[in-house]
């Protein structure tokens, strides 16, 4: 592994183009309605093959996140002006417990696993987004606002429907795109109801390799953006 937990500058490895477990890559999101990257999270590859990319976002990881131009956290801005006020980005740390992120190739969502302290499993989180676009240093996507929480008892509920509606009002998503996102959400709900992968695969019992160092955020975290269709 790279010294000091640095993100490796490697091509997607091997003849099949997959990263080896323990590789450090970036998981990034492009801003909605723009071309710039506004979220970057260094992660460690857990598994990468034709069926699944699984990565670990460790506690304390330095990340990039969007904030308003005056430094106000986005979530503190009233919803009516949250997506219209000027923004910038800032470096910060991922506080709390870590997150395991799972994504299947070509699927318009990823599934994140959260734990409370002491590895008490909390919930799955379905993040609706563009299918991940791979590049030499990681994966890129665009967030679609709408999400789903899935609980250990298999119950579920929609999240951030208010943000989804506001994004549409502010012109960040047209009717055609919104219909696609809703359809993706319904497809994810069908997977939840049938308890298909990855919910059925026991990932809540997974634990990170204790030898893994926390990856560092590179200075050129916004390099070589992969093309992601909107």
How does this structure look, described?
Residues 79-196 form the DUF402 domain. It comes from Streptomyces violarus. This is DUF402 domain-containing protein. Keywords: Hydrolase. The structure is a single chain. The protein is an alpha+beta fold and 230 residues long. It has one domain (23-205): FomD barrel-like fold (Beta Barrel), CATH 2.40.380.10. It is built from three helices and eleven strands. The protein has a seven-stranded mixed barrel. The relative contact order is 0.20.
Strand order of the largest sheet: 1-2-3-6-7-8-10
CATH class: Mainly Beta
Helix-strand topology string: EEEEHEEEEEEEHH
Number of domains: 1
Cα-to-Cα separation, first versus last residue: 35 Å
* CATH fold descriptor: FomD barrel-like fold
The helix-and-strand class reads alpha+beta
Helix content: 10-25%
- What is the fourth-level CATH superfamily? FomD-like
Largest sheet: 7 strands, mixed, barrel
- In round numbers, the mean pLDDT is 92
Strand content: 35-45%
Low-confidence regions? 1-15
The shape is globular
How many H/I helical runs?
3
